[in-house]
Amino acid sequence: MSSSSQPLKQQIQNTIDPLPPNLLPLMLNLIHLLRSHYPTSDTWDLLQQMAGTVEAPPDWSLNPDHYLYGTPKQD
């Protein structure tokens, strides 16, 4: 199933699941930061509101290690 046909919550979960354990505290901090700036009763609603609002290189999802750690880009 392509990510575009999956519900947004599933896409987010699929993105978080493979993160290395050392990045999970950062992800939690990001969620807390977002919640403090965009109060809502549901974190998933917040993430949906924020989807598409962050400026990032077009290949960010393909090369996060390059942008986070400077590793060579993947083709």
Q: Could you report the average pLDDT, rounded to the nearest whole number?
A: 82
The low-pLDDT segments are none
Described by the principal axes of the CA atoms, the overall outline is globular
- Please give the radius of gyration in angstroms: 13 Å
Task: Note down, in words, how this protein is organized.
The chain is mostly helical. 49% of the residues lie in helices and 0% in strands. It contains 4 helices and no strands. It is globular and about 40 Å long.
Give a summary of the structure in a few sentences.
With about 80 residues, the protein is mainly α.
Question: What features would you highlight for this structure?
Answer:
mainly alpha, 4 helices, globular, 49% helix, 75 residues
How would you summarize the topology of this molecule?
Layout: H1 8-16, H2 24-37, H3 43-50, H4 64-69
